[in-house]
Design goal:
By secondary structure, this protein is an all-alpha fold. The chain has three domains: 152 residues; 98 residues, no CATH class; 71 residues, no CATH class. Helix content is 73%, strand content 0%. Helix 3 packs antiparallel against helix 5, helix 7 packs antiparallel against helix 10 and helix 9 packs antiparallel against helix 10. The radius of gyration is 24 Å and the shape is flat.
């Protein structure tokens, strides 16, 4: 394919992809209520249309890059590297297959379920498409040497705030460990209040539907126990254990790709600021930087809780170094957008 034809068709397809990403963002259910639940079937149909349209755009992009790959010289391939036509085509093929799988799975789910469960599957499918669309648009813009218009839509800031909320929730539930029988009622009352705090926090609207449902179910169990079995400390302790388990589960948000990349960059920047012992970083600026890591590591959280912790540079350097190693990408791994398990 001639370069002129390629450069003429590509911007139009990028524009179509951007439009679909914005449509998918509008279609996501961020504040689920009874109306959204009752509309789960038409919402699922709309999500399938978005996925089908997205698959069509990716098919056109794949055709375009396959044709261009046939004409790229070895020298061009070496120069372009990860944005060479054949490399981009490989990415597009994988994403297109994933979108088809998501659309097929959503169609099957629509035939079998409705309500909250169907809404959860819709949000997962749309979220996967949005992530794949943003990653692909950024890749194509790199190919053209242009600035990405979707980069600002990444969810790292939102995820950082949500993780901080989850970390606070876990600390409140865990407290000093499992409650004694005489303290079960008080701890469960506080647990119910902690759930309300999460749901009504600024991060509340960004909760996954499944996580919101888990929190609401436990809140309901606490209330029922309080009304009917408040003197049954054994049953109350079982509910507290489930509540603590959920607080741990919510912090699996740390597996999100955008948080891993964010935390990797923050840890590297903090270590760089601390590299010269003769010029220690400003403690206020360092604390502000590291605050966005709250919830990633219990060790680091403990240091953040105490002002003196951030001044113990040797200890902080050790914790950040260990964190940086944990976050380092596995050699030879290449996570593909949209192909990861359902995020927390």
């Amino acid at each position: 394919m001639a370069v002129a034809d390629f450069e003429l068709r590509l911007p139009a397809l990028i524009g179509a992809l951007r439009s679909l990403v914005h449509v998918a963002l509008q279609a996501e259910v961020r504040n689920p209520d009874e109306d959204a639940k009752n509309d789960s079937v038409p919402r699922a149909a709309n999500a399938r249309r978005i996925l089908d349209s997205g698959s069509g755009v990716f098919a056109s992009l794949l055709e375009l890059f396959d044709a261009r790959a046939a004409d790229e010289s070895p020298a061009e391939v070496e120069t372009l590297g990860p944005v060479a036509a054949h490399a981009v085509a490989d990415h597009l093929f994988v994403v297109q297959m994933e979108l088809r799988h998501l659309a097929s799975h959503l169609a099957i789910t629509s035939d079998q379920h409705a309500g909250w469960e169907l809404l959860s599957h819709c949000n997962h499918a749309l979220g996967s498409f949005i992530k794949a669309g943003i990653a692909t648009e950024q890749l194509l813009c790199r190919r053209l040497g242009q600035r990405s218009e979707l980069a600002g839509l990444t969810e790292s800031r939102q995820a950082v705030a949500l993780r901080k909320t989850f970390a606070k929730f876990r600390r409140r539930i865990a407290a000093d460990g499992p409650p004694e029988p005489a303290a079960v009622a008080e701890r469960l009352d506080d647990g119910a209040a902690a759930i309300v705090e999460v749901l009504e926090s600024e991060s509340g609207p960004s909760l996954r539907l499944a996580d919101r449902q888990h929190l609401l179910r436990l809140q309901s169990r606490i209330w029922q126990w309080g009304e009917q079995q408040r003197t049954d400390s054994t049953r109350g302790l079982e509910i507290w254990q489930d509540l603590y388990g959920l607080s741990e589960l919510l912090l699996q948000i740390n597996h999100r790709e955008e948080l891993i990349e964010h935390d990797r960059q923050v840890a590297a920047e903090a270590l760089e600021r601390m590299a010269d012992p003769t010029q220690p970083p400003d403690p206020v600026e360092l604390a502000s930087l590291l605050e966005s890591l709250r919830g990633r590591s219990e060790e680091l959280d403990h240091l953040l809780e105490r002002p003196a912790g951030l001044q113990a540079h040797e200890r902080l350097h050790e914790v950040l170094g260990r964190l940086q190693q944990e976050l380092a990408p596995a050699r030879g791994s290449a996570a593909l957008p949209g192909a990861s398990p359902q995020p927390v």
